[in-house]
Amino acid sequence: MTSSTDSGSVTVVSSALWSCLPLIFILILIEIFIFTRWKKYRFFFTSNNSKKEYNIFPTIFSKYRIISSFLVAVISILFLLNYLNLKEYLDSQNTSTDIYEKYYIDSNKVNISFNGKKRNLIYIYLESMESSLFSKKNNGAFETSRIPELEKLAEKNINFSHNSGLGGMYDVDGYTISALISSTSSTPIVASCQNECEKYGDIVPKVRTLGDVLKSEGYNVEYMQGTSGEFAGFKKYLTKHSKQKLIDYDEMIKRGYVEEGYYTWWGIEDQKTLKFAKDEILKLASKKEPFAFTVITIDTHFVDGYLDETCKTPFSDKMSNAYSCSSKKIDNFVKWIKKQDFYDDTMIVISGDHNTMQEVYYKNAKNYKRTVYNVFINSKKDDVNSKNRQVTNFDIYPTVLSGLGADIKGDRIGFGTNLFSSKKTISEIMGIDQFFKEKNKVSDYYDKYIN
């Protein structure tokens, strides 16, 4: 039987090869054409009535054109695999780790108890939203903040930071699905799964997730996103864990929120998704049970983001304008929540999922340490130690439960630590780089108790 990590290794290798095949094919065609017709590519030099002929492509290339083409193709593959850090990945998959035995806390064995009236949860995941977008005066990478409204929310509320001022969390894996699962289960997914998790079996099926806990406590749990939940296996993940409700692009079409065939950017743009989210929240708030509602945005996805007709363009580049517009939309959404009758009993969590994949956007901040945005609003727990922390998405699960008023025995779940407690995170104990390196290695514990 093939293990999840074995099948994942094959996927990474095959994906890398398929990605470079078109480039290889084009290079071979060009080289064969040039080296076959090399005599056409020459120039003449005339001096003192003598004429000398020089070939741009020496005869040796024509004679050994197939070999030279093969060598260029091999070099191209090596460059691509180096770019994808394949060696580092394969090294991790051929090395076992005992990090799970040492630090991982089985969520099924953690005593979690709620006392008194349960607080509602509204969680807003922002695509590729970084604290790096703050102004430099608040430790950001830009003279002028790209997200001034979100920056102000972080100033006025609880922001878990990697420095002494405003800051953020360290990016886990760089993919939305890994961020969503790590923040709701405090558990890594198969590293190679990335955006193809729907091809594998159930995702962390033996783990008791945040949704599992809230459903067992009587919460109505819903997620909303303007993209298809089939992508990357997110719908599969929610269905496996307490059959949590997902209102995605396909469901919105079924409900008539948008007309059949409507498709913008990645599906339905944030302006519409947030409007539909308000309607769903009001429906949930009208019920007697507490609710946990999550909305996931998409307009700030690379490349360059998406601008709808309401977006202003104060910056010269589209990506900055997309971030700026998203900041205003989320701020208005939060203001709307605060005006509702249920707000006093509701905690709002806003966080990015990962750092942007559009690396060139930060070309002028090469030595800057980029982190993921986060803010907790109207938590039941007070800020006791939010600065100079090494925090990751793994720490969100227990911290959300604690912010809702739950007591967590030991203040640890999976690889996550309750940030409202005085306990150190795994990243702070091991060091962030070592933790990230170890969590991606092969583990018998993972295969036996998690997957």
Task: Using brief descriptors, characterize the structure shown.
6-stranded mixed β-sheet, disordered N terminus, 39% helix, two-stranded antiparallel sheet, single chain, alpha/beta, Alkaline Phosphatase, subunit A
List the helices and strands and how they pair.
Layout: H1 4-36, E1 42-47, E2 50-55, H2 59-63, H3 65-83, H4 86-93, H5 99-103, E3 112-114, E4 120-126, H6 148-156, H7 176-185, H8 210-216, E5 220-225, H9 234-240, E6 245-247, H10 249-255, H11 270-285, E7 291-296, H12 318-338, E8 346-352, E9 374-377, H13 396-403, E10 406-408, E11 412-413, E12 416-417, H14 426-430, H15 432-439, H16 444-450
CATH class of the largest domain: Alpha Beta
Quick one: overall form? globular
What count of helical segments does DSSP give? 16
**How many domain regions?**
2
**Helix-strand makeup class:** alpha/beta
How do the SSEs run, as a string of H and E? HEEHHHHEEHHHEHEHHEHEEHEEEHHH
Residue share in helix: 25-40%
Can you describe this structure?
The chain is of the alpha/beta class and 451 residues long. The protein is built from 16 helices and 12 strands. The longest helix is centred in the N-terminal third of the chain and has 33 residues, at 4-36. Mean pLDDT is 87; it is low at 1-13.
